[in-house]
Automatic annotation (TrEMBL):
Protein name: GMP synthase (Glutamine-hydrolysing)
InterPro entries: ChyE-like, Class_I_gatase-like, GATASE
Organism expressing this protein natively: Pseudorhodobacter antarcticus
Domain called Glutamine amidotransferase: residue spans: 76-176
Record Pfam families: GATase (PF00117)
CDD domains in the cross-refs: GATase1_1 (cd01741)
Cellular component GO terms held in the UniProt record: cytosol
Amino acid sequence: MRIGILQTGAAPDQLLGELGDYPDLFVRMLGGHGFTFQTWRVLDGVFPDDVTECEGWLITGSKHGVYEDHAWIPPLEAFIRAAYGAHVPMVGICFGHQIIAQAMGGRVEKYAGGWAVGATEYDFEGRRVVLNAWHQDQVVARPAAATVVGGNDFCANAALLYDDRMFTVQAHPEFRAEFVDGLMRVRGKGVVPDPLLAVAQERLGMPLDESAVAGQIAEFFKRPRVSLERA
């Protein structure tokens, strides 16, 4: 199964050589599930020709806000809606989670409650899941087509499911402890409050459920679907 990665942000230059760029993290995370990958740098205006060019799509995280004025955001929203209409499965992570919600009629804001950073606990339909987070923006009003399948008291809309077509997660299952540690060093100081960084540093060794969520994403992509012609 061919998965197209729509890259909306880039890892800090200081981390690229050792830890890789955002698409590399997803290829690692989903390794062993039988996927092949191709990346389009949509943040540079490079888009696939058609939503059927791949059998599934994954939108990465980004340092940008979905509400910012970038030339590539409107065509990305149009691509999301086209993929939904064509029943091509799509997964969104962090920024990807937010841009899908915005494209589908939800609302994203810089959350007044502040940041979530590092190992964070969520309730995924009664299952405790621990994933690394790195965000201040949140989906504050979910689209009508979305069902909440994960959240916590800080982030109510932390995982959304749009029937069998889109699955999105606010946290970063692709971020391992060393990547979060690097982000705290090169992007956190002066941006994220020091007390939050200190707590996140203490939780770097906390066991994560990245493998379970990677399996959930892989299962979502591979799920049998009714063809558009028969839908």
